[in-house]
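I keep forgetting this: the sequence line spells out the residues, with the fold written below as integer tokens. I include a record here:
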Amino acid sequence: MNIAALVRGVATLAWVASIVLIGISVARAARGQPFRGATSLIIVSVVVALAATSVGASLIFVQPTERGVVISALQQGIRPEALQPGINFVVPFLESVIPYSITRQTYTMSITPTEGQIAGDDSVEARTSDGQVVKVDASVIFSIDPDRVVATHILWQGRYIDNLIRPKARGVIRDAVSQFRIEEVYSSQRFVLAEQMRSELEVSLNEGGIILHDFVLRNIAFSPEYAASVEQKQIAEQTAQQAAFVVQQRTQEAEQARQVAQGVADAVVIAAQGDAQARVIRAEAEAKALLLIADALRNNPDLLTFEYIQKLAPGIQVMLVPSNNPFLLPLPSLTPSIAAEPTTP
């Protein structure tokens, strides 16, 4: 429970009661009807109201997400230390408290009229090292350093967004973009660019008592002329890539056909080599067979005659004569003839 608010509520009720009692007393006095004890009640209510108001003015409740800067008429205009979360005491009517939020805040500069803190186009216009104009959308996520709230108040008087964060961020963005060429800004060096912006802005804000938690490079927009040229370049690159792909595909198809033809040729060569080797093997086998036959005939001269007889058998109808008589004579018929039966006269 916020005790300071409760005490202020009691003070408010006491003042209302005092005013009501005074009004009732005046009204009854005007009608000639005295209000006994009115003076005492009015005095008591006013005393209670003054006491509650004084106590309420001296009690300050600071939220956990805040720090309080005390403006004092007693300590050279300001207390050196900020009030911490919880109940704090100040000198009534001589000191006042300005609360500062220490939670994270986001300041956005956008080309879209409804996205940024400022209505309309609030993007940062910058020029690259090769003279191209770009518009940068960015967000700064920050918080006030809890240990330096008093110093921040002295420096900026609560205007740290308009007098520190906004001008520093826009200046850092312009300086960083000016060190890169246009094609580096949107392609190869974009992350390097964003990191350079973040590191430079962190140093600048830290000097002013602000903690930078993150810097978001949201978008980079180009002029319509350059955007059109980039689009044409991309179309040309895509067309070239498509042509290269077609050439590669045709090359692969030709290589595939060559490999198929090479395979067929290799198969023909292998088949021819196999046939030739088969012929050589058959010829060698026949030659060896002839040599064996020649050796057999040389050692057995009658073997040829025996083979001849084997070829003629079993229906041989000739008679063999001795070897010194080369003639072949017909053999007599081995089939007996049937004699004619005698006839009866």
The chain is about 55% helix and 20% strand. The radius of gyration is 60 Å. Residues 333-345 have pLDDT under 50 and may be disordered. Residues 3-101 form one domain.
